[in-house]
Design goal:
Elements: H1 2-15, H2 18-26, E1 31-37, H3 45-55, E2 57-58, H4 61-70, E3 80-87, H5 90-103, E4 107-111, H6 126-133, E5 138-141, E6 144-147, H7 151-166, H8 171-185, H9 203-211, E7 215-219, H10 233-251, E8 257-259, H11 270-278, E9 283-285, E10 292-293, E11 304-305, H12 312-319, H13 322-328, H14 333-343
Parallel strand pairs: 1-3, 1-11, 2-3, 3-4, 4-7, 8-9
Antiparallel strand pairs: 1-10, 5-6
Helix pairs in contact: 1-12, 3-5, 10-11
Length: about 350
């Protein structure tokens, strides 16, 4: 029901002309819209690309930022827009890349070299995998015995795992915690067959994408720690700097853009920004919602988080800047009340 209401609201914004008016308003001055995706398959990516291609100048990331710096837009009056994918899932290659070639649409992938060509899943997928495949009935963690056949205690375990992983003070401690969990829960550490779309890209796939001229790459740290949680300043700098070094060696070209892991304000301290500057990047991206103009801080650039599971009408409202405005209104009381009545039957 909530999904239906969201699409209904997005349709009202679109067919009433509000989205079109917002697109026109956004063309008043040079700006760059950067969309932030993760996985590419199982949704409406083709519809997203067709809509964006029709209403925006979908261009390479660095071209868009260079144009923004110069204040030049060329003959096309449409707002510049960049599609970006964080992390480097396999379906960026198997699904998004064929669509990009078919429709001639560029996009950027922010990579995590420490996961490339490794038989391992991204750490934020571990909690779900561990609880799905464990056969043990209980686990001792943080001084408590949690029984996995009790839904509330199973949920508590999931929340505890997530908290540990997100607040780990070092990559080594995060990995040691995961190793302990795999052993205690009796779950093999390697990738499972059903995880094909969510496995990390390989260097061979990355080079094939780069050779097309449509896909570019940026840095997303070496192992994807939450940078503000790291207690060692040297590890912080290494995560940011070595990522760039490895990518440039493998790709044979400069890497000038960076995306902060998770990327909200609380994950980006002053020291984190300084490390990114010291590592030599020219631009760095958050996941703070919004557009970028000539006054934007190049190390705190904004992106609009979206997902291929969202209907293209919602994407249209997001890209125009209307969806975040509507969200801030908390869905308007009468819509929330309507949803609640339907849930209660």
């Amino acid at each position: 029901m909530r999904k239906f209401v969201m699409i209904f609201v997005a349709a009202c914004l679109y067919y009433s002309g509000c989205v079109r008016l917002a697109r026109w308003w956004n063309r008043r001055k040079p700006r760059v819209i950067v969309l932030n995706y993760h996985e590419a398959s199982g949704g409406y990516l083709r519809e997203h690309m067709l809509y964006l291609q029709r209403h925006y100048r979908v261009i390479h990331l660095e071209d868009a930022l260079e144009q923004l710096d110069s204040g030049l837009q060329g003959d096309d009056p449409r707002t510049a827009l960049v599609m970006s994918f964080d992390d480097g899932y396999h379906d960026n290659y198997s699904h998004a890349f064929p669509l990009a070639r078919e429709l001639n649409i560029p996009f950027t992938v922010f990579l995590i070299p420490g996961y490339i060509d490794r038989d391992r899943r991204y750490w934020w997928l571990e909690e779900r995998h561990l609880l799905k495949h464990t056969k043990v009935e209980k686990i001792a963690l943080d001084g408590k015995i949690l029984h996995l056949n009790d839904p509330s205690e199973r949920l508590e375990l999931a929340q505890t795992i997530t908290r540990h992983l997100h607040t780990a003070p070092s990559v080594a401690e995060r990995e040691a915690f995961l190793t302990m969990l795999h052993q205690t829960l009796d779950v093999p550490a390697g990738l499972a067959e059903e995880e094909e779309t969510t496995r990390p890209l390989t260097w061979q796939e990355i080079r094939a994408m780069q050779e097309s001229g449509l896909i570019s790459f940026g840095a997303h740290t070496l192992h994807h720690p939450i940078l503000s949680s790291l207690i060692d300043e040297k590890e912080l700098l290494d995560e940011v700097k070595e990522c760039r070094t490895v990518l440039e060696q493998q790709l044979g070209r400069p890497v000038r853009s960076f995306a902060y892991p998770v990327g909200q304000v609380q994950h980006i301290s002053k020291g984190v920004v300084q490390a990114v500057q010291q590592a030599g990047y020219k631009w760095a991206f958050t996941t703070v919602n919004g557009f970028n103009d000539q006054k934007s801080n190049p190390y705190l650039l904004r992106r609009i988080e979206t997902d291929v599971s969202q209907h293209w009408l919602i994407l249209a409202a997001e890209a125009a800047g209307l969806w975040s405005l509507f969200a801030r209104l908390r869905w308007v009381p009468f819509i929330r009340a309507y949803i609640n009545r339907k849930r209660m039957g």
